């Protein structure tokens, strides 16, 4: 029974495709995290909870009879303001402090969001049905839900849109300038406060898109945010900040890794294997770093 | 200095509050029998916690309005003190401690879920407080030798073994191939044990045995395996998210299995969330309103459902029905014991043998109810899928519809 995946070649293909589609979605969340990490030096533990909140927006649209796919437009719009709100209330007080303080602050936000969502939306597991069909390949032996394809496609569109925006627009340039050197940017007349608020808003908006897509493809629940935070954290660690192609590649890599871990180790180790990989990568990075330091000495 | 003063006055205020509240409750006050319950009103079990509370409240109102409890020639009324355990086992145990040692409660009603019941049972046992619980089905609750724990529901290992028997029967008595996926929690793993026993009994083979993580929302890998090995029956148990995820992905991946058996379908509002995609799923249930059990308080299941709907504006899930039944058991035991002595009430509970609208209730030495079989219903929809209903298909004695087997393949649906 074990290693069924290697006996049936179609399963390998299925796992790879599932993993890639899933990974693109993870990469979108990770991109938001990389952006604000790079600009503000804040690791947002509440990332996953913002995703879930975005998912609830799409879910409520679905309840009101609007097709949940429109959530990918509405949800980022609302989430942008949620993000700016969080920045104004909490993050602006910790943005110049050390990393530990900001981790604590966002951890607090995460707990608060979980409880509030539980309070407001109830503890039921919910989902939004898109009614998209299924794409069958190779005589029905590989199946790709169209909702997953849709998710990957929308994620790519938003990621590309954001890259272009960062390159071309005034705000995008201000954000990049702040990321490079906040003090210099301030001296040259960039309102860094505004840039920070916008960055946090953009991150929340990306989470909103991802959340809407997750409510269409999977299920949402107030307490399901943490795995998304961990995954995006991991993707960013692997790819490094400000390395968008790297984020996309490590996102897909993680997706495929998860699917294969699922087949080979069993579903129960799926998320565990992600944690394990994270530990291994951190140890490896540390190891590499210490060698570099020795070299410098 | 100022802060110190504030803290001091705060502490003394709380101390004052506590000292006054201790004396205001006791086990039986005037004509009231005070029961205590820690229940999940917030946190991840809050929806089922509320079903449980509604079930308790409905039965309290009904029993009180129909003459109350007669003990020693005097009439008493039920009253329940609730505390919110936040779906947290540690908190639940603290609250049980508080209910018993501070509020003086001498009779307890159970919380929601096996995990929380497990946390509370040692406390009630320590103080010798009888607890009738309605929402902890894990088998491990009944193997610890607890003397004061009584469960009105069937233990978890009996949830789905009926489905295996049914599959074997449909296979002409020959063993079947089973694929199963269970979440890693006390309840689901007990359901799994039941399946393992049923498989051994019937000589069936388990060809996929996946464990699902707590954060599960993707079963694509398990289902792809199922597609590849083609089992005769697929069994899934992972609370509501397991049920919802399974149905969504089975439909999306067009997985064809002759039989699909699950738990937690009504809690997941499966047919409401998934419509026609959920059709033909077999679901284990402790109770269904069409069962013909009777009692004098609620009449029968249909009447209970109608009254519940009138009061709470939704169809009662079995979690509510079994909770109501717990109160009926308590009333019966008090009257037979004719006393409020904890030990006597405990012995009366142990000797319970009665029928309620929820089912027959008779406790084994371990405290589980052995007189009530599980039922299986199948989701059946009309042609366009706009209306889906749960129809009991097994055991045959209660069946209101015939089992549809095998499930039509997706290309024909």
Describe the protein's architecture and organization.
The complex is a heterodimer of chains A (297) and B (413). By secondary structure, chain A is mostly helical. Chain A has one domain (8-270): ABC transporter involved in vitamin B12 uptake, BtuC (Orthogonal Bundle). Helices cover 77% and strands 3% of the residues of chain A. In chain A, strands 1-2 form a two-stranded antiparallel sheet. The model of chain A has no long low-confidence stretch (mean pLDDT 86). With 413 residues, chain B is α/β, with parallel strands linked by helices. Chain B has 2 domains: 23-154 and 291-362, Rossmann fold; 158-289 and 374-412, Response regulator (Rossmann fold), CATH 3.40.50. Chain B is built from 12 helices and 18 strands. Chain B has helices spanning 2-24, 46-65, 89-101, 114-127, 161-170, 186-202, 220-229, 239-253, 270-274, 301-312, 318-337, 342-350, and strands at 28-29, 32-39, 69-71, 74-84, 107-109, 131-133, 149-151, 177-183, 205-212, 233-237, 259-262, 282-285, 294-295, 299-300, 353-356, 359-362, 375-381, 388-394. In chain B, strands 1, 2, 3, 4, 5, 6 and 7 form a 7-stranded mixed beta sheet that branches. Chain B has a 7-stranded mixed beta sheet with strand order 9-8-10-11-12-17-18, with helices on both faces. In chain B, helix 5 (161-170) packs parallel to helix 6 and helix 11 (318-337) packs across helix 12. Chains A and B meet through helix 2, helix 5, helix 11 and helix 12 of A and strand 9, helix 7 and helix 8 of B.
Q: What string gives the helices and strands of chain A in order?
A: HHHHHEEHHHHHHH
- The total number of structural domains of chain A is 1
CATH class of the largest domain in chain B: Alpha Beta
Looking at how many chains there are and whether they match, the oligomeric state comes to heterodimer
CATH class of chain A: Mainly Alpha
Radius of gyration of chain B: 23 Å
For the termini of chain B, the CA-CA separation is 76 Å
Q: Shape of chain A from CA axes?
A: globular
Q: How many domains would you count in the coordinates of chain B?
A: 2
> Helix count of chain A?
12
Largest interface: A-B, 45 and 44 residues
Which structural category fits the helices and strands of chain A?
A: mainly alpha
**Intertermini distance of chain A:** 53 Å
Runs of chain B in which pLDDT lies below 50 for 5 or more consecutive residues are 20-25
Q: If strands are numbered along the chain, what order do they take across the biggest sheet of chain A? A: 1-2
Main sheet summary of chain A? 2 strands, antiparallel
CATH architectural label of the largest domain in chain B: 3-Layer(aba) Sandwich
Average pLDDT figure of chain A: 86
């Amino acid at each position: 029974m074990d290693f069924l995946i290697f006996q049936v070649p179609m399963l390998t293909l299925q796992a790879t495709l599932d993993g890639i589609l899933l990974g693109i979605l993870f990469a979108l969340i990770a991109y938001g995290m990389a952006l604000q990490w790079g600009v503000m030096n804040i690791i947002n533990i509440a990332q996953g909870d913002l995703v879930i909140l975005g998912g609830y927006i799409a879910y409520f649209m679905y309840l009101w009879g609007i097709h949940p796919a429109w959530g990918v437009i509405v949800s980022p719009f609302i989430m942008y303001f949620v993000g700016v709100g969080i920045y104004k209330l909490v993050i602006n007080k910790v943005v110049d402090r050390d990393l530990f303080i900001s981790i604590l602050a966002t951890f607090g936000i995460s707990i608060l969001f979980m409880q509030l969502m539980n309070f407001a939306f109830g503890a039921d597991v919910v989902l939004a049905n898109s009614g998209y069909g299924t794409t069958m390949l190779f005589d029905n032996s590989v199946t790709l839900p169209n909702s997953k394809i849709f998710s990957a496609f929308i994620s790519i569109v938003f990621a590309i849109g954001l890259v272009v925006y960062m390159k071309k627009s005034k705000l995008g340039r201000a954000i990049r300038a702040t990321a490079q050197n906040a003090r210099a940017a301030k001296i040259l007349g960039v309102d860094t406060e505004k840039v920070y608020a916008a960055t946090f808003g953009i991150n929340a908006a990306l989470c909103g898109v991802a959340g809407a897509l997750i409510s269409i493809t999977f299920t949402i629940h107030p307490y399901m945010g943490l795995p998304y935070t961990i995954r995006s954290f991991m993707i960013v660690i692997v790819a490094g900040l400000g390395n968008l192609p790297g984020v996309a590649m490590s996102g897909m890599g993680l997706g495929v890794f998860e699917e294969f871990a699922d087949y080979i180790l069993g579903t129960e180790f799926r998320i565990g294997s992600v944690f394990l990989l994270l530990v291994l990568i951190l140890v490896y990075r540390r190891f590499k770093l210490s060698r570099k330091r020795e070299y410098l000495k | 200095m100022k802060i110190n003063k504030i803290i001091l006055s705060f502490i003394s205020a709380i101390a004052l509050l506590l000292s006054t509240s201790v004396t205001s409750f006791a086990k039986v006050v005037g004509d009231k029998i005070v029961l205590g319950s820690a229940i999940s009103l917030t946190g991840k079990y809050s929806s089922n916690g509320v079903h449980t509370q509604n079930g308790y409240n409905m039965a309290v109102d009904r029993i009180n309005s129909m003459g109350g409890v007669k003990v020693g020639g005097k009439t008493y009324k039920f009253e329940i003190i609730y505390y919110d355990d936040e779906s947290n086992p540690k908190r639940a145990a603290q609250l049980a401690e508080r209910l018993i040692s501070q509020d003086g409660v001498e009779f307890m009603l159970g919380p929601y879920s096996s995990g929380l019941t497990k946390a509370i049972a040692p406390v009630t046992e320590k103080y010798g407080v009888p607890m009738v619980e309605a929402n902890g089905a894990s088998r491990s609750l009944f193997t610890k030798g607890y003397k004061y724990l009584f469960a009105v529901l069937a233990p978890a290992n009996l949830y789905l073994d009926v489905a295996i028997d049914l599959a074997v029967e449909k296979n002409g008595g020959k063993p079947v191939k089973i694929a199963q996926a269970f979440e890693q929690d006390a309840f689901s793993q007990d359901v799994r044990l039941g399946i393992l026993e049923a498989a051994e009994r019937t000589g069936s083979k388990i060809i996929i045995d996946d464990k699902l993580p707590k954060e599960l929302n993707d079963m694509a890998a398990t289902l792809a395996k199922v597609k590849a090995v083609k089992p005769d029956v697929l069994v899934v148990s992972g609370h509501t998210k397991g049920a919802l995820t399974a149905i969504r992905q089975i439909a999306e991946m067009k997985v064809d299995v002759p039989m699909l058996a699950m738990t937690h379908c009504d809690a997941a509002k499966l047919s409401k969330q998934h419509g026609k995609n959920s059709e033909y799923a077999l679901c284990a249930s402790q109770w269904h309103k069409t069962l013909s059990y009777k009692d004098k308080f609620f009449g029968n299941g249909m009447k209970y459902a109608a009254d519940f709907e009138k009061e709470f504006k939704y169809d009662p899930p079995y979690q509510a029905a079994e909770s109501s039944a717990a109160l009926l058991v308590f009333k019966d035991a008090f009257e037979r014991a004719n006393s409020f002595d904890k030990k006597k009430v405990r012995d009366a509970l142990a000797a319970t043998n009665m029928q309620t609208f929820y089912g027959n209730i008779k406790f084994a030495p371990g405290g589980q109810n052995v007189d009530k079989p599980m039922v299986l219903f199948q989701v059946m929809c009309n042609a366009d899928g706009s209306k889906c209903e749960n129809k009991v298909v097994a055991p045959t004695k209660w069946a209101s519809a015939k089992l549809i087997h095998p499930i039509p393949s997706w290309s024909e649906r």
